[in-house]
User: Fold this.
Amino acid sequence: MNDIQTKSIGLVLSGGGVRGMAHIGLIQAMNEFGLSAQVVGGSSVGALVGALYANGNSVLDMMAFFKETPLFRYNFLTIAKPGFIDTDRYFDVFKTYFPQNSFDTLEKKLHVVATNLQKGDLEYFSEGELIRPLLASAALPPVFSPVEMEGQLYADGGIMNNFPLEPIMGQADYIIGSNVSVVGELNKNALKNSLQLTGRVTGLMIYAINRKKLNACNLLMEFKELEKIGVLDRKGIEKAYLVGYENTCRRLEELLKKPQV
Assistant:
């Protein structure tokens, strides 16, 4: 632990919907152990948590953001755009937390990934306007509509990179990864319909694509208990937070007990 505390820390936060509240629990545990990241990379919900962390918001502020920001509002529904909910309608909600709307005013360096749907490629954002890249990174299709930036349509960063380690490499001595897109073993009864099967297959594909990057972290936190929480299940906010907090505390305590070599 003393070794970690003497190094610059990079933090990588995966996508995973409501399960991403475990990222906030991890951050709370880091705070209690005197650990602070200097650079953060995030995809989807990881981008949102990362932005709040980089902005200097407290853990209470982070939790309030997700509890108070409605996933579904009837007046946000749209038939004019691809997607059930107009993502652009969340701009004003985000503006209350990021009034300066700029990467450059954040307290920590932040890298956000989003998927360019037209070019079929991913892009990283780390300077200039902040809110629209955040909205794009978290715009999970087909629930949320894509976000237009400079004539291009962008959607969820997790489509092509659910664990954006790349922009963090070389910018920190010690990499802490938090992966909430878990693929624990399932009972056969958990795959009873097409929707469950599709979700499982998608999860396996995402995990396989990112496995090498996950293993490249100096400290990787994965939370198997999160698979019982639905990606859009707002009732799981507190539970996911506790899973992240308790597991990270235990892991950091174990590291603290290890003899230094």
About this structure: The two ends are 11 Å apart (CA to CA). The chain has one domain: 9-254.
